[in-house]
Write a structure and sequence with these properties.
With 326 residues, the chain is of the alpha/beta class. It is built from 12 helices and 8 strands. Strand 6, helix 6 and strand 7 form a beta-alpha-beta unit. Helix 2 packs parallel to helix 3, helix 3 runs parallel beside helix 4 and helix 8 packs antiparallel against helix 9. Belongs to the DapA family.
């Protein structure tokens, strides 16, 4: 490691983070179902994930109100406390198109019990997002809150705005910017950043589990992956097997997980259907409409649903072979 920046005062723990889907009531307005959310948060924690991410892309964050985001953080924190895990990491999406909005969302998340804030770059006027604007945005938000900030790099959701490793490295030197989630899928960023920084200085995570081993082998700290909604134990086991030196077992499981994760690449509707089909009954949530996307977006059709089951079915027995963590 070449950087001499100090370790962050609050370090995001390594591991598997689940970007939790949002669950709705089967009503015309599709209000958030907080009771079902509590059940699902509890299920994920018991299954062995290392942290929950709320109000991210998989949660349909742009369709959630500020009050809904805040309440979901409170519910997640309650689920963790009730399971005897009061310090369990809860990462809250705080992405806004303005600095002011992002600061307000960070304040809400902190007051509700969030541990960290996940922040996309501004992207509404993409041509106006210069490097200086990007750096100023993150630094201003990080200066204005005590909530530790995790950068969220996802060009496909941000009008193509990408942050190269040099830009990320500049932001890594801020004392309240603690890591990055790379949904850009660029493994080169992992190795460049981990060559400069230790996990305690600036943590680096893959944005999906189909390249978890490459990320870990390159010095990364884990991943934030939508498939953890569906098969949380499998992804947690993949991570632990690699860290325990069980390379052959980890590689085999990596392949199985990657094949299943194809379904999550098809979008929110496919991920939510998969969660309803495979994990819903295990979490005690049986109403399929709870897992529908929020309107105007539609749930999976029959053909796509059948394909999702087909490409994920091989993980069912594997998932069931692992015990609860809590």
């Amino acid at each position: 490691m070449t950087s001499t920046v100090a370790k962050k005062s609050t370090i995001i723990p390594p591991g598997i983070y689940c970007p939790v889907i949002s669950l709705y009531k089967p009503t015309p307005r599709q209000e958030i179902d907080y009771d079902a959310s509590y059940k699902f948060f509890s299920y994920l924690i018991r299954s062995g994930v290392d942290g929950l991410v709320l109000a991210g892309t998989t949660a349909e964050a742009v369709l959630l109100s500020a009050e809904e985001r805040k309440e979901l953080v409170k519910i997640a924190r309650k689920a963790a406390v009730d399971l005897g895990r009061p310090d369990f990491p809860v990462v809250a999406g705080i992405s806004g198109q303005s600095t002011n909005e992002s600061i307000r969302l960070a304040e809400d998340a902190l007051s509700a019990g969030a541990s960290f804030g996940l922040l996309l770059p501004p992207s509404y006027w993409a041509k106006a997002v210069t490097k200086d604007a990007m750096l100023g945005f993150y630094r201003d938000v990080a200066d204005a809150t005590t909530l530790p900030i995790v950068i969220y790099s996802f060009p496909a959701m941000c009008n193509g705005i990408d942050m190269n490793s040099d830009t990320l490295s500049e932001l890594a030197q801020h004392p309240n910017i603690v890591g990055v989630k790379l949904t850009c899928g660029n493994a080169g960023k992992v190795t460049r950043l981990t060559q400069e920084y230790t996990h305690e200085q600036f943590a680096v995570y893959a944005g999906s589990s189909d390249w978890l081993i490459p990320c870990l082998a390159g010095g990364g700290g884990g991943c934030v992956t939508g498939i953890a909604n569906v098969f949380p134990k499998c992804v947690a086991k993949l991570y632990s097997s690699w860290n325990q030196g069980k390379t052959k077992e980890a590689k085999e499981l990596q392949g199985l997980v990657a094949q299943a994760e194809k379904a999550c690449k098809e979008g929110i509707a496919a991920t939510k259907f998969a969660t309803a089909h495979f994990a819903g009954p295990m979490a005690g949530i049986t109403d399929l409409k709870a897992f529908w996307p929020r309107k105007p977006y539609a749930p999976c059709g029959e053909e796509k649903s059948a394909w999702v089951v087909k490409v994920m079915q091989h993980l069912v027995e594997v998932e069931q072979s692992f015990p609860d963590a809590v």
